[in-house]
Automatic annotation (TrEMBL):
This is Uncharacterized conserved protein, DUF952 family. It comes from Fodinibius salinus. It holds the Pfam family DUF952. SUPFAM superfamilies: ADP-ribosylation.
Length: 117
């Protein structure tokens, strides 16, 4: 998986509600001081852990080189795994793609990426 990409999972409604003037500022930015993201291998677990009650999610693909804010990899308190966090608003021009992902019939998400690079 490419390390120049990060992923943020949200909903279309949240994306539309919290972006303006070229920036995306979800509630976690105010409440926690950062925007939660995932690396490629973490996407599926994150989607199924945090969005299990959703029929559909929006996966934002972020080009790290275009980010205007600092990224910190910090340990998740339960899993011990390090997740990327963006410390500031996400400039929307760093989002290179938006993918709508529907849940499987059993309600889970099955998201996988592979890369030859």
């Amino acid at each position: 998986m490419r390390d120049d990409l990060l992923f943020h999972i949200t909903t279309e409604e949240e994306w539309d509600e919290h972006k303006s003037d070229g920036n995306y500022e979800p509630e976690s930015l105010d409440s926690e001081g950062f925007i939660h993201c995932s690396s490629g291998h973490q996407i599926n677990d994150t989607a199924n852990r945090l969005f299990k009650d959703h029929d559909q999610i929006l996966l934002l693909i972020i080009d790290v080189s275009s980010l205007g804010e600092e990224i910190k990899y910090e340990e998740h308190k339960d899993s011990g795994e390090e997740y990327p966090h963006i410390y500031g608003p996400l400039n929307t021009n760093a989002v290179i793609d938006e993918i709508i992902v529907s849940a499987e019939q059993d309600g889970t998400f099955d998201i996988a990426f592979s890369s030859n690079s």
